[in-house]
Write a structure and sequence with these properties.
By secondary structure, this protein is of the alpha+beta class. The chain has one domain. Helix content is 46%, strand content 14%.
């Protein structure tokens, strides 16, 4: 019998439901408002969201802290 590896491999891409969970939104919100702004990997019916794309979207979508907005 083959031995099972105990090391974990870091994920570099997630399924859309996993990507939605990773940024704290539901699947419907993700599909409507986030996915259209992301580059996705498509192979046949499979869609994967690169983690780097999620990180980019979060960084670009973040607004300034409220304290900075008040000072303007």
């Amino acid at each position: 019998m083959a031995k099972k590896l105990t090391t974990t491999v870091p994920r570099i891409a997630l399924t859309p439901p996993e990507a939605a969970a990773a940024i704290g939104v539901g699947p419907d919100f993700f599909e409507a408002y986030v996915a259209p702004q992301l580059r996705l990997v498509r192979r046949g019916r499979k869609r994967l969201v690169p983690v780097s794309e999620l990180e980019r979207w979060v960084t670009e979508s973040a607004s300034r802290p409220v304290s900075e907005e008040v000072r303007r």
